[in-house]
């Protein structure tokens, strides 16, 4: 079975319960495969990044296998505004930055005949455009599992910035750290490269995006800009290091 998210933002949970940890979010227009369907919950796998978890059965619309694969192969189109609206003759729905609009390219793939009222974005962006997209998330509060300007975590931030710029990377920081070309020094990095940070056990637990002049933008309490040096992230407010640098990766 296959489905599409027809609500603004839906929680993807670790277990089949409203009390379970939110491990990510499903945004409007994302399509996914239903691996297991129970009375109230479905275990799903997202098409874009293969992330999987549990979603409430009331929070998606089933589609055919043909439509799923048709949508999956369409050029990716996203909402580029902080928040915009889609509507039909029955309802209007707010959709966040990063909502997927690809299915609207073909009326046969648009089950509710939604019309998008904002500015879409598509295609591969430059490093400078990547940074401008990152700035749209500035001050967004930190939210474990979040993927929107209303709440986002560190790897959700880097994934969404890259996604909106035409690059598709894994959901979690530890998996993002497995791709790309490692750099030996901060001085070798360019705008848009990703820096990864580990804990005392050596596990990758944080990621941020490198800016000019040894600055980094990342989600820590909120999406913020701090300094980056050979030790890690230097918080510009406290003057203390908050994260220990493990590796820098050139992804694009």
Structure commentary:
This protein has 2 domains: 2-122, Roll (SH3 type barrels), CATH 2.30.30; 127-250, endopeptidase fold (from Nostoc punctiforme) (Alpha-Beta Complex). The protein contains 4 helices and 21 strands. The mean pLDDT is 96. Strand 5 and strand 6 (52-56) form a beta hairpin. The strands form 6 sheets. A 6-stranded antiparallel beta barrel has the order 16-17-18-19-20-21. The chain has a 5-stranded antiparallel sheet with strand order 6-5-4-1-7. It has 252 residues and is mainly beta.
The proportion of residues forming helix, as a percent range, comes to 10-25%
Question: CATH superfamily of the largest domain, please?
Answer: endopeptidase domain like (from Nostoc punctiforme)
Structural class: mainly beta
Q: In CATH, what is the class of the largest domain?
A: Alpha Beta
**Could you name the CATH topology of the largest domain?**
endopeptidase fold (from Nostoc punctiforme)
The total strand number stands at 21
Percent in strands: 35-45%
Q: Report the mean per-residue pLDDT as an integer.
A: 96
CATH architecture group name of the largest domain: Alpha-Beta Complex
